[in-house]
Structure formats: structure tokens, C-alpha cells
Write a structure and sequence with these properties.
Elements (H helix, E strand, L loop, with lengths): L1 E2 L5 E2 L9 H9 L2 H4 L26 E7 L3 H10 L7 E4 L3 E2 L19 E5 L16 E5 L1 E2 L15 H9 L7 H11 E3 L16 E5 L5 H12 L15 E3 L1 E2 L1 E2 L2 E2 L2 H6 L8 E4 L2 E9 L4 E9 L2 E13 L2 H11 L2 E2 L1 H6 L6 E2 L10 E2 L5 E2 L9 H4 L2 H10 L10 E7 L13 E6 L14 H5 L4 H8 L7 E8 L7 E3 L10 E3 L6 H18 L2 H4 L4 E2 L15 H10 L2 E2 L31 E3 L14 H19 L1
Parallel strand pairs: 3-4, 3-18, 4-15, 5-8, 9-10, 18-30, 19-20
Antiparallel strand pairs: 1-2, 6-7, 10-12, 11-23, 13-14, 16-17, 17-18, 21-29, 22-25, 22-28, 23-24, 24-25, 26-27
The chain binds flavin-adenine dinucleotide (FAD).
Pfam families: GMC_oxred_C, GMC_oxred_N
Keywords: FAD, Flavoprotein, Signal
Family: Belongs to the GMC oxidoreductase family.
Length: 628
């Protein structure tokens, strides 16, 4: 194949032709597999995943081929290869993580780096008005470790009622009691005070810790919560709703990605072959038998095929897994035909897409200095050395997120004790990394329009502030994912369809009122907390602090917290929107499963890293059972 100047394969709009000579040649040039990219200046800082035992190239056949070494794929590969007689190839498009991605406080930086798939939501006229080109940015992780290498490390599991509802829909094996076992299996709880909790795992590989550095603002948040009736609790315990200190996937102050937990310790297993920088382009499915038997992938600009004796498993995440299914002929018939893809199975791939959105613009100014995190003050050599040596200090903060509170707003009509909003207390706000020397990484990571930002927050940039991000847990609005074309290197079209239901807007406004009430309590008032009167171009005709103003504000800074789910929705066989069954097998196709956050069928009150890891754990047991 020809290669363009960016190192990307130039390919026509149809799948590229297989030339046997090319494949043979590729498979005999061993350095293509063992050599890292020689132009990669940061290679020295990265983890390495050579093939074990000095192997120069991968086998042509494995028991399992897993696509995507992300949160789910990493744990799945590790568990399947516990049996030394089982072989696994783990294909990953991204590179291994590095010393830099270990630094929790710079999490916002990674939303626009080589570790990111730079996806955008399709333009929606009434949201994301304050973003560059009025479009919301949907970055995903592209790394060994997947999105857990670029995320904010927040550890949450979802409420019992939510998982029980998923099970009640006909998804056997997915009740809260079932999933709790798998959450606990992965977890190594390192949080003082929770040692004897019956809900915390002790001997897993995934370290969960409190963040070692906190500002006084988190104690104000928790105290304000108690005043308004929210107890301070372990918010991941099933008993009640409340507020708590942030629980994070970190180990001694450093990021604990899924790769660090599950792949790094097992990289010398002879039966686990991990191939970074290898992009799957298609699942090979026999159109007659409808059985998946391998994967086509591209590495070092060359095309390869690998066979799977038992199963192919897609763990490429909520955007790439449905895309790969559709490219392979599994998806909505008419849609595939429109793109010239031969249809093997007609399934509603991409028909359901939920996301968790937030409004990051509710900023409270404070009248004391040295309260909140201000990047330009914290970025000192002393602090960096402190973190390198001891894993604490301001560099250990997970992007300044410090606490979480679950609330059920007055507009909720949920009959159960299920929250409709999560509040994330920040030891600062969107303005904390501004100023002349500031990185502005948070606003840039969200692709906020700088002019709109400066107009709204310029007067308080780089000052002491507090905010809580309200995260809409159970949106009624449903999005959709489609192919743009049949080129595996194109990004799909993603429609968030945000705030298209009025109840979603009402829930946001109710949450904003609740955050205002928290800020009005004594713990915040002793710091002189005052709401900042941000002015947005689109909201000029509204009165500040009216419901109309807040709706407009939310539609201006409509930011995703990156929890897209349900694009390969799990469901029983009578669910017209289901793509996989409760054992994650793709309907109508043999030996093909999807194992990642794309299968979560309904919204849960959780950031989706821990759920994805839980899904990988659970899938490993289901797969082992199938083949035992
Ligand atoms: C900026 C950001 C912040 C977040 N913060 C949090 C947080 O604080 N807490 C939390 O719980 N969740 C958070 N999330 C969400 C969470 O991290 C993800 O939902 C979760 O990691 C998804 O796991 P997954 O296994 O479904 O997919 P991923 O972890 O995304 O893994 C998919 C993998 O497949 C690879 N891949 C894709 N296509 C191909 C292909 N064709 N060939 C080979 N490999 C391929 C990708 O490169 C990736 O490594 C955040 C997400 C983002 C983007």
C-alpha cells in the first residue's frame, strides 16, 4: 500500500486488496514486529511489550484474538492467559503508556496527544455553542491501557438498583450482586477506613486509593453536603446516597491504568502476545457459516491477517467496536448497503448511544488566596520532585477532582433511591490553569472556544475559585452512531442528541440550584464564595440566574465526561435494540463477542472505567466456561 506524508495508508474508499506477496513479505520482515518506531523520541519513557521469548513475529493463529488493549481488553487478556495452554493475541492501535501519562495532575493534557483518538460529535445546532466550531470533542484513549491511560482516574461502580434493572430486562448474570463480585475481584482497596468493608476487594490488581493531595475546598463540600442532608460516606457502597472523598485508580500517587494493573505484570507470559501500534481493520467472518475466524489488521503500514481458533473478541471501546462490526458486515442492513459493505447480519449496531454530559461553567470566586489549586503556582520543581519521590503533593491530584456527591433532585420521578445527578467537587475550576503562563489544558481539552471563554471568565482567570461539575446520570435523550464510509481509518459519525428531552434540561437546572445552595452554606461562605456572573454570547437576551439563563449556559458549555455506552447494546433476544446477548455474543454470528463499555445497555451512575474493567473480568469467566 502507498503511504501519505503523515505516515497514513493512502487507500481507496473500498477495503484494500490483499496481495499474497505483500502478506508474505510482511510476515518475514521480523524487524517490523520487534522494532519500535525509530522516530519516537519518547520511546525511552514508555513501557515496552516485546513478544515473549525473543519471538520475532506473532503466530498466524491463536485461540483468542482480542482487539483493543483498553480497560476491558487488558483484564480480559490477562485472565484468559492464566491458563498456560491458552494463547491470546492482543491487538492495540496505540502505543504503551509512559512516565508522563503516570502524572495524575496533567490528565487534562492527554485529550489532545498521540494517546488520543480525536473524535468529534456531529454538529447539533442547540448545544456545544461555546465550543470551537460549535462541536463537542469526544476524545478516547489510544494506548496500551486504552482510555484508562488518559482518563481522570475516578473510580465509581453504579448503584445497585441500576444493575438490578439491567438484569431485570433479561440480562441474566448482571444483577448488582453478580457485578459486585467482579468489581471486588479486580480491586485492591488501599483506602484507610474501608479495610473491613464487605464491598471492597482486597487482593485484586487494580489499586484504588484516596487522592493524597486535597485542598480545604473538599472539606467545605462534604460539610456543606452534611448541612443539606447528604451524609459523608463511601459513595461506592450500596447502602445509601451521599458525598465522599474521591476514590481513584492510582497507586502511590501515580496513575493505575488497566495496562499497569493487568498487562505489565503479565507481559512475560509465553502465551500472551501484545502488539501495540497494530490497528484492526476488519473481523474476518465466513459469510456462509457466519462464524468469525480471524482479524485483518495493519501494522507498520502493512496488512496482516491472524486466525482465531476459538473466538474473536472486540474490546475496541464504544466507538471503534461498533465501527469494526459494521465494517465487517454486521450492522443495520440498509446503512451497510449504502456504504457498499456486504451484509452478513442485520443488527441495530449503533442505534443506542447514551453519554454523561456536564456543565463545567458554574464558577464560584473565593475571597482567600491559597485555597484552590492554581497550576502556575503548583508547577514547581519542588512539587515535581516530591511527587517523583513520594507520590504526593499537588502533582498527585487527579486533574483537581476531589470529591463526589450523588443527589436526587426534586424533578426526578424515579421510584427508586437512584440519583439523577452526580456532583464532582473540584479544588478549583476551569480558570485554575489559566493566566499568562498557564497551560489552559482543561478548557483546551474540551475544545472550548477561547473567545467565548475569555468573554465569560477572563476577569477571574487564574484566581481562587471553586466549582462542582453536575453530571447528568440518566439522560432521556438518546444518540446514535453511524459509519461515515467504509474506510476503517475514517471516524464514524456520532450524534449525541444532547438535551433533546426537556426533562434533561430541568434536571441540570435543579442540580445547578443545589450547587448554589451548597455554596450558600457556612463552610463555603467563610471563604466568601460568590457566583461568577459569566456572560455568554448566546445568552445575552437572558437574565442572569434565571432558569432560561442556565439552560442557555448549559447549551453553551455542553461538555461530555466521555462515558459513551450502549452502541453494541446487550439485551435478551426479544430486545429489538440488542446487538449482543447477556454473554456478550454477537447475535447471529458465531465465535464473536464484544467485551467493553459499548455493551452497557442502560445508563448507570458511574464513570465507565471501573464498569469496563468489571465487564472484562466477567467476560473472561463466561468465555472460560464456554470452552471448559
Ligand atoms: C478524557 C476522559 C476522561 C475520563 N475520565 C474517567 C474517569 O475519571 N473515571 C472513569 O471511570 N472513566 C473515565 N473515562 C471513561 C473511561 O475511561 C472509559 O469509558 C473506559 O476506559 C472505556 O473502556 P473500554 O474498554 O470500553 O475502551 P477503551 O479503554 O477506550 O479501550 C479501547 C481500546 O481499543 C483500541 N482500539 C480502538 N480501535 C482499534 C482498532 N481498530 N485496532 C486496535 N485497537 C483499537 C483503542 O486504542 C483503545 O486502546 C474518561 C474518558 C475520557 C476520554
Amino acid at each position: 500500500q502507498k503511504v501519505n506524508k503523515n505516515g497514513k495508508i493512502k487507500r481507496p474508499n473500498q477495503s484494500f486488496p490483499q496481495t499474497p506477496l505483500m502478506t508474505m513479505l510482511a510476515q518475514t520482515i521480523a524487524p517490523n514486529f520487534v522494532q519500535q518506531d525509530p522516530t519516537d523520541l519518547f520511546d525511552i519513557l514508555r513501557d515496552k511489550y516485546p513478544l515473549p521469548n525473543g519471538l520475532q513475529s506473532p503466530f498466524s493463529e491463536y485461540d483468542y484474538v482480542i482487539v483493543g488493549a483498553g480497560s476491558a481488553g487488558s483484564v480480559l487478556a490477562a485472565r484468559l492467559t492464566e491458563d498456560p495452554n491458552v494463547t491470546v493475541l492482543l491487538l492495540e492501535a496505540g502505543r504503551p503508556e509512559s512516565l508522563i501519562t503516570d502524572v495524575p495532575s496533567i490528565a487534562p493534557y492527554f485529550q489532545r496527544t498521540e494517546y488520543t483518538w480525536p473524535y468529534y460529535m456531529e454538529k447539533q445546532p442547540d448545544v456545544c455553542l461555546g465550543m470551537i466550531n460549535n462541536r463537542c470533542y469526544w476524545p478516547r484513549g489510544r494506548a496500551v491501557g486504552g482510555t484508562s491511560v488518559i482518563n481522570y482516574m475516578i473510580y465509581t461502580r453504579g448503584r445497585p438498583e441500576e444493575w438490578d434493572r439491567i438484569a431485570a430486562d433479561g440480562n441474566y448474570g448482571w444483577s448488582y450482586a453478580d457485578v459486585l463480585n467482579y468489581y471486588m475481584k479486580s480491586e485492591k482497596n488501599n483506602m484507610r477506613g474501608y479495610e473491613n468493608s464487605p464491598y471492597r476487594g482486597k487482593s485484586g490488581e487494580l489499586n484504588v486509593e484516596f487522592v493524597s493531595f486535597r485542598t480545604p475546598l473538599i472539606d467545605a463540600f462534604l460539610e456543606a453536603g452534611r448541612i443539606l442532608g447528604h451524609p459523608t460516606i463511601d459513595y461506592n457502597s450500596p447502602e445509601q446516597l451521599g458525598f465522599g472523598y474521591l476514590q481513584a485508580t492510582v497507586t502511590a500517587g501515580k496513575r493505575m491504568s488497566a495496562a499497569k494493573a493487568f498487562l505489565h505484570p503479565n507481559k512475560r507470559r509465553l502465551n500472551l502476545h501484545i502488539l501495540p501500534m497494530s490497528t484492526a481493520t476488519k473481523v474476518l467472518i465466513d459469510p456462509q457459516t457466519k462464524i468469525a475466524n480471524g482479524v485483518e489488521y495493519v501494522r507498520n503500514r502493512l496488512r496482516f491477517e491472524v486466525k482465531a481458533r476459538r473466538e474473536v473478541i472486540l474490546s475496541a471501546g464504544p466507538i471503534a467496536s461498533p465501527q469494526l462490526l459494521m465494517l465487517s458486515g454486521v450492522g443495520p442492513k440498509k446503512h451497510l448497503q449504502r456504504h457498499g459493505i456486504p451484509v452478513i447480519e442485520n443488527l441495530p449496531v449503533g442505534f443506542t448511544l447514551y453519554d454523561h454530559i456536564t456543565f463545567p461553567g458554574l464558577v464560584f470566586t473565593l475571597n482567600e488566596t491559597n485555597l484552590s489549586i492554581i497550576e502556575s503556582k503548583e508547577a514547581t520543581l519542588d512539587n515535581i520532585i516530591q511527587w517523583l519521590q513520594f507520590g504526593d503533593g499537588p502533582v498527585a491530584t487527579t486533574g483537581a477532582a476531589e470529591g463526589i456527591g450523588y443527589i436526587k433532585t426534586p424533578v426526578s420521578n424515579d421510584p427508586d433511591n437512584v440519583p439523577d445527578m452526580e456532583l464532582i467537587s473540584i479544588g478549583g475550576s476551569l480558570v485554575s490553569d489559566g493566566g499568562p503562563l498557564g497551560s489552559k489544558a482543561t478548557r483546551r481539552g474540551m475544545m472550548i472556544n477561547e473567545q467565548v471563554f475569555d468573554g465569560a471568565y477572563g476577569s477571574v482567570d487564574n484566581t481562587n475559585t471553586w466549582t462542582a461539575f453536575p453530571m447528568l446520570l440518566h439522560p432521556k435523550s438518546v444518540g446514535r452512531l453511524e459509519l461515515k464510509n467504509n474506510n476503517p481509518f475514517s471516524h464514524p459519525r456520532m450524534y449525541g442528541n444532547y438535551l433533546s428531552e426537556s426533562s434533561d434540561v430541568a434536571t441540570f437546572i435543579a442540580a445547578i440550584r443545589h450547587i448554589q445552595a451548597l455554596a450558600a452554606t457556612e463552610p463555603f461562605q467563610k471563604y466568601g464564595a460568590r457566583i461568577h456572573r459569566a456572560q455568554y454570547p448566546a445568552c445575552r437576551n437572558t437574565t442572569f440566574d434565571s432558569d432560561e439563563y442556565w439552560e442557555c449556559a448549559v447549551r453553551t458549555f455542553t461538555a461530555t465526561l466521555h462515558h459513551q455506552i450502549a452502541t453494541c447494546r446487550m439485551g435478551p433476544d426479544n430486545d429489538p435494540l440488542a446487538v449482543v446477548d447477556p454473554e456478550l455474543r454477537v447475535y447471529g454470528i458465531g465465535r464473536l463477542r464484544v467485551v467493553d463499555s459499548s455493551i452497557i445497555p442502560r445508563t448507570v451512575s458511574a464513570h465507565t472505567n471501573a464498569p469496563a474493567i468489571m465487564i472484562g473480568e466477567k467476560a473472561a469467566d463466561m468465555i472460560k466456561r464456554t470452552w471448559s
